[in-house]
Structure formats: C-alpha cells, structure tokens
Amino acid sequence: QVQLVESGGGLVQAGGSLRLSCAASGRTFSEYITSWFRQVPGKEREFVAAISGSGGNTYYADSVKNRFTSSRDNAKNTVYLQMNSLKPEDTAVYYCAAARAPVPIGFPSKYDYWGQGTQVTVSS
C-alpha cells in the first residue's frame, strides 16, 4: 500500500516557477513509476510527466517539455515536479500517481495509487 500526498501548489504569475512535491509512504517506493497528471474542470485528466522508479528515465508531455522537470529522492520517498516558465494554460489541479508494474504512462486508469491533488493557478 502506498499513500501519496502532494504539496507545493499555489498562485504564481505567468513566467514564474513552482515546485510540486509528492511524498509517499511505503518502503518500496523506488519500485514505482511515478507520474504527474493535471485536470481542469470539465476536462479529462491529462498526463504531464513520469519518472521511473530509479529516477533514471523521465518522460514529458509535449506541452511541458523543456519547461517542467521531474526528479525523485527515494531516500526521502519523494518525487518532485519543477515547473518553470509557467503559462496560464498550466492552471489545473495537479495529481501524482504511482504504479508498480510497467504501465502505459499516459493512461490514468493504469495507476494504482493517487494523491489528493494540489491546485496550481497561473495568472496572466
């Protein structure tokens, strides 16, 4: 069992930065691929970024590539999403999700565990 808790969201002006954290319980967190999704009201949850259990591989949606960076510190059971050059269209609730088995990373239904989400609002 893994519990995920996101933090770090908030209000920022366009062009600014935020760093989200996803803190996990459980001793085997390093065995989980961990991803970030985001969702706005009325739309489906959208894949943002993923990081392998070891941290050696990362994947990004085209819309955030070169602006967002995912990293993890398995000693702290924490995954991070550094978000730079934020745009108003990045406004959403951001969720972290974890899956133990290899999964098609862009599909929310394939993940075993989810956090409660953290709001990110980017003003123009």
Characterization of the model:
The protein is globular, with a radius of gyration of 13 Å. It contains no helices and eleven strands. The protein has strands at 4-7, 10-13, 18-24, 33-39, 46-51, 58-60, 68-73, 78-83, 92-99, 113-114, 118-123. It is mainly β and 124 residues long. The strands form two sheets. Strands 2, 4, 5, 6, 9, 10 and 11 form a seven-stranded mixed β-sheet that branches.
Q: Keywords for this structure?
A:
single chain; 124 residues; mainly beta; four-stranded antiparallel beta sheet; 0% helix
List the helices and strands and how they pair.
Elements: E1 4-7, E2 10-13, E3 18-24, E4 33-39, E5 46-51, E6 58-60, E7 68-73, E8 78-83, E9 92-99, E10 113-114, E11 118-123
Parallel strand pairs: 2-11
Antiparallel strand pairs: 1-3, 3-8, 4-5, 4-9, 5-6, 7-8, 9-10, 9-11
The beta-strand count equals: 11
What about the largest sheet? 7 strands, mixed
Give the amount of beta strand, in percent. over 45%
Query: What is the structural class?
Result: mainly beta
Q: How would the global form be characterised?
A: globular
- What ranges have pLDDT less than 50 throughout 5 or more consecutive residues? none
The tally of helices reads 0
N-to-C terminal Cα separation, in Å? 40 Å
Order of helices and strands: EEEEEEEEEEE
Residue-averaged pLDDT: 96
Helical amount = under 10%
Rg from C-alpha positions?
Answer: 13 Å
Please identify the oligomeric state: single chain
